[in-house]
Task: inverse folding
């Protein structure tokens, strides 16, 4: 971690090379660099393979495909770094949509409805955090339970039917459907969230404690860090960002589906892991995780543009995940 | 002494990339001897042992076993050849019984479809009959660390081995258990089994071993009969220079201030310790002795608010203070260095710089809560240099450092908050001689500069060599205090194990103190 | 039991249209305006693209496209995921196709993408599921009301208009919802002695359907029949009925190779299968027409209102009744041989 900045020349340094060479070597060995290289190669190959690839329409579609999910990836990455995991994100996204949509149809102002829905998602996070830190259950099981509970709540609120929300006021729909110049507003939100959290994760003391906790919870406790609080807050943050993403989806689709986001947790975890987050905690970056999401999206898009049989697409995507993780494992082993 | 050679290593070299870990090493092992292996961490001892156990393959050189050349390609093959290796790190399955752990390899190789637990327990019991009374049916997780270590040894004993390699087996054992282990080693040697014994403790080498080989920088320096060599010679050969003083000088009479830094009154924790009262004076190093499990670490952790439900009073520099959690303790300037370095002392995967700053990361941040990377590195560099930390780049993970240097990082972390009192639990465990004496020197300097130092150690020579005063803890109570002339192993052991018996024999103070 | 009964409930307008096309298409293909420019491409976009339902639909589309010299592409997402389907739809637009024949997984999320596609010059026709609030030109499907009526009459007739029945549901997909609600309404209005004893949402999931039907049979030993609006749940339902050795009539809409076997074995009474081939064939024709609005100047207000003159709000592709006797003709493998 702490890859930001150019390293200074260390005196008394026997192992690492010095100066610019060291900086270049270190940047080259970073996970993000590798991902960017792979994505660039794909871009170049695809622009030769398909005349449609480098079109604005295709680029827009690719970014739109992961932009909102990318906000969930941010929350998941932070939680993974703290050593946790959250399987409930897809259900919580759907829960936010459905609750806000239902409140709106019952006469609540859409902005207020959205705020309530996001707060409700934060409460789900608190409940999960409570189960993990106070009762001592494992994140995996707790979030699995809440995945089912939140999904059930969605079906209960909607009685299983999608809620049509085309009566949402245009200024609210702007969040999901509007554009600033040629740039969809969704992408603007996504970029702001990613830059803000990437910066904070690299620089702020608060998020540094997430790294300490995830790297070695006991050592963190022995450094005076209130690790349970860190884990609790990371869990709440992940659920809150999922709720936020749900509201953007609602504005984008003009509807709320109780079955939305099934399987999203796997995409999100895959992106974070391809981007270098460890399921054991203690490592990962937002930039890497988003690049992981970009890679998955570019691959999907390439497969579609190349008319690869749909029957092959899942196999290829799964293999990429496996290759990325194996490659990382291999690199780590060689370092040690 | 029988001169029959069982294992002959000739001109073994091993390189990892550009690094030459072993340079044309010769080594021989006689039948039925206990052969000590000494050397600093990184001297090549582990590499050589890993080659003998088949974990690593040599780049060049030959191994002869009973006069025949062998290639040892895997630990399984080493076992077949009769070579058993007890690693320093415990590698047991915590959730299954002791007996199942001991016979794991055998069960794995067996073609039987059902487990015969009765038989396993019976055989495990026979093994333990010579070791210590451990119930073979109990789960490993319920055993203390020292008993787990005994299980590891029992596991190796069940293998029908002719060569047994023990890597610092006594590190986690109490004196008593260690004595038992030495008795067992001697009876095994008498039965013709050859033992390679890796240890940093001079006393053990001189009390229990027949020969000693010293390694340094991947080279074999010397092999000698123990009676023909002195501890000073061994240390000199290990570090390649003369360590004139293994321990730093003690507090001078005129340095005694009598000024109380920390006063602990009637500290009680329901199940761990009772009525603990003591003072730490400015300028001194205080030691905590006692058997493992006596409550030494628990007292230190209790004072620092790390664990336990404490009753009692605490005065820091004459003012009553209350410590509810470790954060309070850090704010007051009391820090605790854990005995389990890898388990809870450092963050192995994180960089050196972020390890050093962990105790109070706000110190290297702006007031907006943003970490200033250059300030963080500067802090790590300053503290690292002060502790003579041998390191690569500050952004490299701590896992890239040797044990002694990892410990220095942990120590730098403590110093980063300019503490008033430091509790150090086993501060030199798994640290080689050179680094050890460096750390002792650092601690003495800190004490001189007015920092209260408390050392908890199971290594009596360390306590005696470094501390000005030692409190002995037995079963949750302070059973006595020794200092000056009474600061001897006999006195400490007597207070620690009491029972009215004689002080333990067999500690003839053959340590390296000049 | 019943001989082949192909219900061709095609809307009259479409019949006329296709007849005129057939006349023009064959003889004068070279000069015909009912043909594509070189490179003119049409795309069929679906969700769960591995589902066998799409195969005959796409074959129908291809047959029409070949006859008219057009290029076609099968596209969509393998997942049951609205975000991914929208992404695949938007990526289709990058290829600048003349039109897209779309099966929208959800109605409302597709409003904005469909409208944007039409604005950028790609026309959109929906099939088998609709996005009615969008500007899509036409919607082609089987008449779900007719299917429901047929099923209700069949079940009531077999039970002598007196007995207990149950339904499984897939809430949220419009055609499936209609098949269920219309079925219940028709029963209540015309057969007052038929009693609804069970209604469970099993969402096309055969294992959910298995569990639901197993408990339904236990709770209602006199259950006489189950109506299922899709084939996925039918696979689970039939397993539950066979296991309980209950005498329950199963009817469902759509067909999969597994339910076809059960029809042959007599475990499933009948399946009502939308005329997939015609759905694709006429769906393509409707998309082509929507992309060439200049071909017709109809007698209405399209010039004033700006509607696509080719737009027909609803086209019925009809449905077939699959029984033991005609089941062989619905073997997908046999149909696909050599294609």
Result:
């Amino acid at each position: 971690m702490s890859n930001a900045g150019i390293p200074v020349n260390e005196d008394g340094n026997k192992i690492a090379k010095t100066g610019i060479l060291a900086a270049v070597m270190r940047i080259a060995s970073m996970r993000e660099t590798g991902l960017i290289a792979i994505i660039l190669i794909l871009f170049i190959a695809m622009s030769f393979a398909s005349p449609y690839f480098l079109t604005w329409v295709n680029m827009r579609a690719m970014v739109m495909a992961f932009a909102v999910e990318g906000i969930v990836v941010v929350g998941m990455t932070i939680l993974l770094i703290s050593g946790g995991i959250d399987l409930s994100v897809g259900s919580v996204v759907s829960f936010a949509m459905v609750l806000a949509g239902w409140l709106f149809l019952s006469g609540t102002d859409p902005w207020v409805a959205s705020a309530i829905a996001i707060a409700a998602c934060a409460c789900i996070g608190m409940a999960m955090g409570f189960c993990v830190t106070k009762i001592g259950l494992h994140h995996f099981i707790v979030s699995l339970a809440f995945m089912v509970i939140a999904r059930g709540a969605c079906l209960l609120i909607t009685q299983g039917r999608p809620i049509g929300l085309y009566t949402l006021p245009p200024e609210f729909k702007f969040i999901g459907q509007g554009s600033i110049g040629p740039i969809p507003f969704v992408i603007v939100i996504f970029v702001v969230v990613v830059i803000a959290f990437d910066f904070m994760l690299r620089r702020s003391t608060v998020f540094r404690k997430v790294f300490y906790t995830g790297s070695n919870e006991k050592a963190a406790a022995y450094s005076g860090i209130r690790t349970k609080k860190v884990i609790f807050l990371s869990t709440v943050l992940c659920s809150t960002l999922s709720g936020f993403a749900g509201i953007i989806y609602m504005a984008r689709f003009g509807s709320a589906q109780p079955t939305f986001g099934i399987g999203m947790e796997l995409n999100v975890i895959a992106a974070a892991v391809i981007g270098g987050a460890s399921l054991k905690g203690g490592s990962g970056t937002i930039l890497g995780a988003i690049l992981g999401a970009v890679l998955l999206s570019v691959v999907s898009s390439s497969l579609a543009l190349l008319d690869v049989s749909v029957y092959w697409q899942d196999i290829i995507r799964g293999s990429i995940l496996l290759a990325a993780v194996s490659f990382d494992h291999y690199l780590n082993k060689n370092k040690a | 002494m029988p001169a029959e050679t069982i294992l002959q290593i000739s001109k073994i070299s091993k390189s990892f990339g550009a690094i030459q870990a072993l340079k044309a090493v010769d080594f021989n092992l006689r039948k039925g001897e206990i052969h000590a292996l000494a050397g600093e961490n990184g001297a090549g001892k582990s590499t050589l042992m890993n080659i003998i156990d088949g974990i690593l393959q040599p780049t060049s050189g030959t191994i002869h076993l009973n006069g025949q050349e062998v290639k040892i390609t895997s630990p399984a093959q080493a076992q077949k050849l009769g070579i058993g290796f007890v690693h320093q790190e415990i590698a047991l399955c915590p959730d299954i019984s002791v007996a199942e752990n001991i016979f794991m390899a055998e069960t794995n190789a067996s073609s039987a479809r059902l487990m015969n637990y009765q038989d396993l327990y019976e055989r495990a019991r026979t093994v333990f009959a010579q070791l210590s009374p451990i119930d073979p049916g109990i789960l490993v997780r319920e055993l203390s660390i020292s008993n787990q270590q005994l299980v590891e040894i029992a596991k190796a004993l069940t293998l029908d081995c002719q060569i047994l390699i023990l890597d610092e087996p006594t590190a986690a054992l109490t004196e008593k258990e260690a004595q038992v282990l030495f008795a067992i080693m001697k009876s095994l040697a008498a039965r013709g089994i050859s033992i390679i014994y890796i240890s940093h403790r001079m006393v053990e080498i001189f009390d229990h071993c027949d020969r000693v080989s010293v390694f340094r920088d991947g080279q074999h320096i010397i092999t000698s009969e123990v009676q023909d060599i002195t501890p000073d010679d061994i240390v000199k050969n290990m570090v390649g220079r003369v360590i004139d003083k293994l321990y730093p000088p003690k507090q001078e009479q005129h340095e005694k201030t009598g000024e109380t830094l920390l006063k602990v009154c009637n500290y009680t924790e329901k199940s761990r310790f009772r009525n603990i009262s003591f003072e730490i004076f400015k300028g001194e190093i205080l030691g905590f002795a006692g058997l493992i499990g006596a409550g030494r670490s628990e007292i230190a952790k209790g004072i620092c608010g790390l664990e336990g439900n404490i009753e009692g009073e605490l005065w820091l520099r004459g003012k009553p203070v209350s410590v509810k959690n470790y954060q309070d303790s850090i704010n007051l300037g009391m820090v605790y260095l854990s005995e389990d370095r890898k388990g809870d002392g450092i963050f192995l995967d994180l960089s050196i710089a972020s390890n050093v700053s962990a105790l109070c990361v706000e110190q290297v941040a702006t007031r907006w809560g943003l970490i200033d990377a250059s300030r963080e590195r500067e802090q790590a560099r300053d503290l690292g240099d002060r502790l003579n930390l041998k390191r690569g780049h500050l952004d490299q993970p701590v896992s890239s450092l040797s044990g002694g240097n990892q410990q220095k990082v942990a120590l730098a972390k403590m110093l980063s908050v300019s503490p008033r009192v430091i509790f150090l639990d086993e501060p030199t465990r798994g640290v080689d001689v050179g680094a050890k004496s460096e750390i002792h020197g650092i601690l003495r300097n800190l004490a001189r500069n007015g920092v209260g130092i408390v050392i908890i150690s199971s290594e009596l020579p360390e306590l005696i060599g470094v501390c000005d005063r030692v409190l002995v803890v037995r079963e949750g109570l302070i059973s006595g205090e020794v200092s000056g002339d009474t600061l001897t192993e006999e006195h400490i052991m007597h207070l620690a194990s009491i029972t009215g018996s004689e002080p333990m024999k067999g500690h003839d103070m053959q340590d390296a103190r000049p | 039991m019943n001989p082949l009964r192909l219900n061709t409930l095609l809307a009259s307008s479409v019949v006329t249209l296709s007849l005129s096309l057939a006349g023009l298409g064959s003889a004068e293909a070279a000069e015909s305006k009912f043909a594509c420019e070189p490179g003119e491409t049409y795309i069929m976009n679906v969700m769960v693209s591995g589902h066998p339902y799409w195969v005959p639909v796409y074959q129908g589309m291809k047959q029409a496209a070949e006859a008219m010299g057009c290029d076609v592409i099968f596209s969509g997402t393998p997942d049951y995921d609205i975000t991914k389907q929208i992404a695949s739809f938007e990526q289709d637009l990058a290829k600048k196709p003349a039109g897209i024949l779309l099966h929208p997984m959800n109605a409302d999320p597709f409003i904005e993408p469909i409208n944007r596609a039409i604005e950028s010059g790609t026309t959109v026709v929906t099939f088998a599921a609709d996005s009615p609030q969008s500007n899509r030109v036409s919607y082609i499907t089987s008449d779900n009301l007719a299917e429901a009526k047929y099923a209700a009459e069949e079940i009531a007739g077999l039970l002598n208009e007196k007995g207990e029945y149950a339904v499984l549901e897939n809430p949220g997909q419009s055609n499936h919802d209609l098949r269920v609600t219309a079925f219940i309404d028709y029963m209540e209005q015309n057969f007052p002695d038929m009693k609804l004893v069970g209604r469970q949402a099993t969402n096309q999931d055969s294992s959910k359907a298995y569990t639901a039907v197993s408990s339904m049979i236990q709770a209602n030993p006199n259950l006489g029949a189950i109506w299922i609006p899709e084939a996925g749940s039918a696979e689970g339902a039939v397993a539950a009925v066979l296991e309980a050795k209950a005498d329950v009539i199963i009817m469902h809409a759509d067909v999969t190779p597994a339910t076809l076997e059960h029809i042959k074995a007599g475990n499933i009474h009948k399946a009502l299968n939308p005329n997939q081939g015609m759905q694709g064939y006429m769906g393509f024709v409707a998309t082509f027409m929507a992309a060439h609005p200049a071909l017709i100047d109809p007698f209405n207000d399209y010039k004033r209102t700006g509607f696509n003159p080719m737009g027909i709000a609803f086209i019925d592709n009809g449905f077939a009744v699959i029984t033991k006797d005609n089941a062989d003709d619905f073997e997908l493998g046999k149909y696909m041989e050599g294609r």
Remarks:
- Chain C touches chain A through 38 residues (CB under 8 Å).
- DSSP finds twelve helices and 13 strands in chain C.
- The mean pLDDT of chain C is 88.
